[in-house]
Specification:
Mean pLDDT: 90
Strand content: 15-25%
Helix content: 25-40%
Largest sheet: 4 strands, antiparallel
Order of helices and strands: HHHEEHEEEHHHHHEEEEEEE
Number of domains: 2
Number of helices: 9
Structural class: alpha+beta
């Protein structure tokens, strides 16, 4: 069962993580696909530790110090954030040896969020920990080469609620009628940011890859359906403590970073104009950064004019209410926040949306 660790311990965990290296993003000055190319030049040429080296990377990047908090393998397909996990893996025990994997909890292996068949298992993609994650062997196999999407009718549901089934061909997931794989809400943003990383890190070759999520270009990279799903998940599930820790651990091994974890606003700057608004509220496309905040201020970027901003404690108490807040360049500034966990409710004539934020 998920342990309810204290706010104090969480703040210590945040402040204990390494910061973005000084000057790392100094050349990321553009917008749109220009910015994506600038990011490619920053994160290109990482130190490939090899396929076997992934298991060494996982010893610092993918242990559970956030839910059970016991150092077992953190698997996004079986981790239950609010209850009892069906099982837990310990690295070195039940690692895939070519046998088993006919049901959950038998073996674990390495899951390529962009399937290795897409790039012919070629290096350095094959062993890039920024998008290759530890996973239950059975569920990895059940996903196969399927794209990620929003389930309409499921034909498989894992112990934590991860699903496989027909895509819901409406709303933000409209435009695809095949079978898809859907993680639970807790990890949707994590997976979206890993896939956006792949599109950026490998923009020099991705235009030649054939995949249901890709459109055959090196700039946009994604189909309209895929980018709507990825940006929606990115915006609805902000960067977590776990992602920051993972990004830093992989940087220490590979010497490159996932820019969409360090700067979530980059995703909307590059692809935001593609986000469908026909059946999707622009309020859901809001970006809050930095989140977690490293100071006492946060920025809220949205093209929707906000009528009200409410800051709410984790106990449901309204701490601050701003009527008709002023913005600058479609960005609202919230200042002088005390450290802690909060919900922030944004309201406009399109409705309202609530996001979770953390202030260190």
């Amino acid at each position: 069962m998920k342990k309810l660790y204290s706010l104090l311990l969480t703040i210590i965990a945040f402040t204990g993580f390494a910061q973005i290296p000084a000057g790392y993003y100094n050349t990321a000055t553009g917008t749109g696909y220009t910015l994506k190319t600038q990011l490619y030049n920053i994160i290109n040429g990482h130190d490939d530790k090899g396929y076997a080296g992934l298991y060494t990377t996982y010893l610092t990047s993918d242990k559970d110090f956030f839910y059970e908090n016991n150092g077992t393998m953190l698997d996004m397909y079986i981790e239950n954030p609010t209850g009892t996990d069906l099982c837990e893996y310990t690295y070195g025990i039940n690692q895939d040896d070519g046998s088993g994997g006919t049901e959950e909890c038998q073996k674990y292996n390495r899951e390529h969020l962009i399937p290795q068949a897409v790039f012919g298992s070629a290096p350095p993609m094959y062993s890039d920990a920024h998008f290759v994650v530890p996973a239950d062997k059975y569920l990895n196999g059940a996903r196969g080469n399927l794209p990620f999407g929003r389930i309409d009718v499921a034909n498989l549901v894992s112990s934590n609620g991860t699903k496989r089934g027909s895509n819901l061909n409406s709303g933000y997931s409209a435009g695809y009628s095949g079978t898809v794989f859907e993680p639970i809400d807790e990890f949707k943003g994590d997976i979206a940011r890993m896939i956006l990383y792949f599109a950026t890190r490998y923009q020099n070759v991705v235009g030649g890859y054939s995949y249901d999520m890709f459109n055959g270009t090196s700039n946009q990279v994604f189909t309209s359906n895929a980018i709507n799903v990825l940006l929606t998940w990115h915006n609805q599930d902000p960067v977590s403590n776990r992602e920051i820790s993972r990004n830093n651990a992989i940087y220490n091994r590979q010497d490159n970073r996932n820019p969409y974890i360090d700067h979530p606003e980059y995703a909307m700057s590059i692809w935001g104009s593609l986000l469908s608004t026909t059946s999707f509220s622009m309020l859901e496309a809001v970006t809050i950064y930095p989140n977690p905040a490293t100071g006492n201020n946060i920025n809220i970027a949205t093209e929707t004019v906000l009528d009200e901003i409410e800051l709410i404690s984790i106990n449901g108490q309204i701490i601050q209410k701003m009527k008709n807040p002023l913005s600058s360049n479609n960005t609202y500034l919230i200042e002088n926040l005390s450290p802690g966990f909060y919900f922030i409710k944004l309201s406009s004539n399109e409705g309202s949306v609530t996001k979770k934020i953390v202030v260190n």
